[in-house]
User: What shape does this take?
Amino acid sequence: MIILNYFTINLLSSTRAYINGESFYARSQKNAIRNLLMYTYSEDAQYYRKFERQIYIPIQDSIARVMLFKNQNRDSIKQVLLRAGNSPENINDFLWLGKKIYHFPYLTRALKEWRESDVLIGQLHRLGLEIRMQVVDNTLTTEEKLSYGSRINLISEKLVLREINFANILNNGIYQINFWVY
Assistant: This one.
């Protein structure tokens, strides 16, 4: 019974760490989107710099996820997670759960949402680079700004759905664990 309680506490604590990380990830990607839209329409370089700072966070989380599932060096993964702005006290929980994630169906479903979000973040980052090149070359037309704005908003809508799914999956998993253990 003690082992079960220890495992359950670790599982719940680690799931909480993932939820906290997702919250920071989501806030950063929303700020990145806002700044990219501002940059697209204003062509003011300060917004592009803010976009790059904000998009860096989910990109680092993506790198950490890939490193974790390729079983890379734990200290290297910790450094990437710290660069992504994750709370130092959550990192060990994050790593603990990452090693056990395939044993829990709700976690594998959450991981799928995260992977799909990473693809969208990559698309957003590439779109930002494309816009930046056109601004620097002074070739960005009003029509293109509107088109880019629509594409950015579409990516944003898809990301919001992934974030909602991720959080709901984790929350439902916690409820199921509490139901069966307690």
